[in-house]
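Input record (Table S2, row 296):
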Amino acid sequence: MGKLALAAKITHVPSMYLSEMPGKHHGCRQGAIDGHKEISRRCHEMGVDTIIVFDTHWLVNSAYHINCAGHFSGIYTSNELPHFIRDMTYEYDGNPELGRMIAEEARQMGVRAQSHEISSLKLEYGTLVPMRYMNSDLHFKVISISAFCTVHAFEDSRKLGEAVLRAIEKYDGTVAVLASGSMSHSFIDDQRAEEGMNSYTREFDEQMDRRVVHLWKEGQFREFCKMLPEYAQYCRGEGNMHDTVMLLGLLGWDKYDGKVEFLTELFASSGTGQVNAVFPLSDDAVNEQTAEKIRA
Ligand SMILES: [Fe+2]
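Output record (fe (ii) ion complex):
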């Protein structure tokens, strides 16, 4: 029986890549990079063999798609932001077996899901950026799932998340799942791009993101799940926040009550809100309670 070892909502802002390069933005996203490296460290420690990414940069206009090729490699330049990410080389192994299992579980739940092992089907940067910081040693296999869902019901995305968990439980291995997308996502007006590098576009979005961070820290997912459709709509959630819906589907939706740990606190990037946040799993909660008893 397989194990879900880690679940997180993560940033993938391309300024992380810019942050590595010499120049005026050097170091600007070190906090986000450190958050990714900590997730990687924990995954190594817990024996994770595969990382599944809900990728809000993979736009799909019909069905849910799982990219589970056996191997990925290439040189990536972003079509959206070629001045941020260019000529980024990557190479990762995939996990066709688990990808097929996820699609099968989803289909059994009535979700129109398909798995693909097509060598010309490339990864998007919602997967490539985090893998750069978490998987530079090629230790983890990678599966990418489309989460920029243009015509899809939240109900189906929630089921897709549940299907991922069911597949993991039947899989012989240990898995981490990452929802790769922003909190609010009002990209900065083009003429204000420079001043918006480290700030929000709209005060409304910042206040909403702060409130959501508070709810997550307190484990108030009954309230959060109720407001999620409006939050995604009014705060222009990236990919309409289907990544977050999938993540919560995996975790038990509004029954989930973990107190979320922020490895990278809320920060603004090009007008949007970003975090690296680990959603504790029940085993962790038990471990934490035990640790507290020992400390007491
Ligand atoms: Fe993005």
